[in-house]
Give the backbone structure.
Amino acid sequence: MTEDKADAFLRMIRRSQYGRLKVYLGYCAGVGKTYQMLAEGLRLRSEGIDAVIGLLEAHGRTEILKLAKGLETVHKRRCEYHGVAVEEMDVDAILARKPKVVLIDELAHTNIPDSKNPKRYQDIQDILAAGIHVVTTMNIQHLETLFNIVENVVGVKVLERIPDSVLADADQIVDVDLTTEDLRKRLKEGKIYPSDQVETALANFFTPSNLEKLRELALRELVSQIDLRRREISEDENPAAADQIMVCLSSRGPNSEKLLRYASRLAGKLNRNWYAVYVQTPQEEIASEDSRNQALTLISKTLSLAKQLGAVVFTYKGEDIPNTILRFAKEYRVGHIIIGKSPARPFWKRFGPNKNIPETLVKNAKGVSVVIFDAPEKEPVPEKKTNKVVQEMAPLIAGTEQLSARLFRPGMGKYLSQDRIVIWNELVKKETVLRALAERAVKNKIVNDTEALMDAVMKREELGSTFFNEGMALPHVRINGLQQAAVAIGLTKQGVMDSSAEKAIEIVFLIISPAQTPNVQIEILSLASRIAQNRHLMQNLMAAQAPDIAMKAIQDWEAADKPDLEANL
């Protein structure tokens, strides 16, 4: 790491009152991520910055332990799991110590059951929320959307994974690279694993072929991140253009998870919003209770993954699935429909409107690209040799630090005021929430007639409930002649009693937008989704006892989300 690159992060943490995240990213254990993290901690300390170790996975490595002696280490939390004594990071101790910077190894770690958070990245999010800066490490194979690719190219199912958004939201990403020959040499010298594990590692995971493939994945991901941030920072790019992405889900789709990971990566490459849409047919509603419960369990798991990957989740009810999908595509300005290949169907199901959904979509979609996703047993691996890829990507990777500031996005404050925030501390009915929010819109002179607005909202709900979004609801209408878009927010601390969602609805966004500017609705939906997916912001909103406190929480979050451009020059 050059001195200039370290100085960039140093300037950032000195200027910001909000926690900043820096990630050392590698392609495999042993490339030097932890060493680089500790070296930066020591350098920060030499500059007068209070930097400590929150969690270190030394694995007995002498050079790592020697380096760590120069830094204070916050004590770990000792606990027992299945009769075995284990040590975990003590988040409360770090928050009490309140250093300026904390070094936390292995971002993708899974905590033991009954921990405060199930994942270490969530612990880190809580630490960042307290205004403490974090430097951490991770390997490329732990990204959720790369699960299937890594399984196919390396033959390993990676159990510990994090949402891609965690890496995408990092303020700085540093690629820690090492040639595969040098990595294998370090392994043979006993610098990665104990000597009794070296031969097994060399013959299995640490083969030249596996390492080259993982190295290429890491480099490609870095280029993808750089490209995304370049396009986000361009003022000419319109994130609400009519080419949003939707993925069509089935309660019994055999490849739903692969479908979602593909859609998420495509949305990231195109810098577009994306939606996960499930259409429930009348036949599924009248199925036996066991079949219905099984289907609900499967689709709930799938929709949870969709939300984790950054999708806005919707469910619809309809007899004609292709027609419902196309109506959604028209309303939400969708330019790419992704659907799985239809499995073989019994003879009696080969008739009616849903006899061949992909074929019907291709035939009837006008101006929309339809991608029929057929997940192969083995996904193709690029033939390009790693050393050539490294040469091609080196100029781009060199600019990572300068391009990795959190970038400005339009704020919800543009469409919201504290007068349009309503809080319920008790269980509340769906209609009560909608009516209260509609009344606030009328009171603020966004629209003139509460009943007319309620009628429009309920008609939209009849097409498919928007109260099925993993704790979030997005009722929305477009109104002819409306001069400006507006949002009213309902915070339902005990949930909505007549919602079909498995998870209690915590936040309801009533979105009112002009019919003549559909892109505005898309922009607000994206903002609402980002708010609902931010753990710390949602915690603050749920703790708010008054609308002005909730409004300030949103404003503070948006202020923290703006770029600190000077700190990254």
Notes: The domain at 412-561 is CATH 3.40.930.10 (Mannitol-specific EII; Chain A). Confidence is low (pLDDT under 50) at residues 235-240, 377-408, 563-569. DSSP finds 22 helices and 17 strands in the chain. The chain has three domains: 3-234+381-403, 244-373, 412-561.
